[in-house]
Amino acid sequence: MLWHAYPKHESIIETYDVGELTVEVLDHPSLRSSIDLAVVAFSLLVFHKNEIIAVFQIEQEDLRSLSERLGCSIRELQDEYRTKGTLSDPRVYVYTKERRNDEGPYEEELTFFSAREFLLELMCDTFDLLFDPVLRG
Description:
Blueprint: E1 12-18, E2 21-27, E3 38-48, E4 51-61, H1 63-70, H2 74-81, E5 91-95, E6 100-105, H3 112-126, E7 134-135
Antiparallel strand pairs: 1-2, 1-7, 2-3, 3-4, 4-5, 5-6
């Protein structure tokens, strides 16, 4: 996967088995790319037979980095994103080898427990899984 917001394989908090899939939950992972346009709050790495097949994550665009890259003022971006801070509102993205899907805003509480439940449910819905995630002990 060659996306700017692809997380490094670190900061693993929990690992789940879901049918034939393995899912790792990451908390505020750093990114593999040196292009730091986003901050990732939480991420799920989904593996099938030791190969990553999808990444589900909650991201916030870094308006400071965007303003530098685009050559515009941070105030312009803050107006466009309707925020006074340096990060956009959280959004949910799903990455596969072929595409990056914007699943829309993340409107739940931005805590590990809420994000984990939301992302696991989205992952199960996306892959039409009937299995409940089982936490590895």
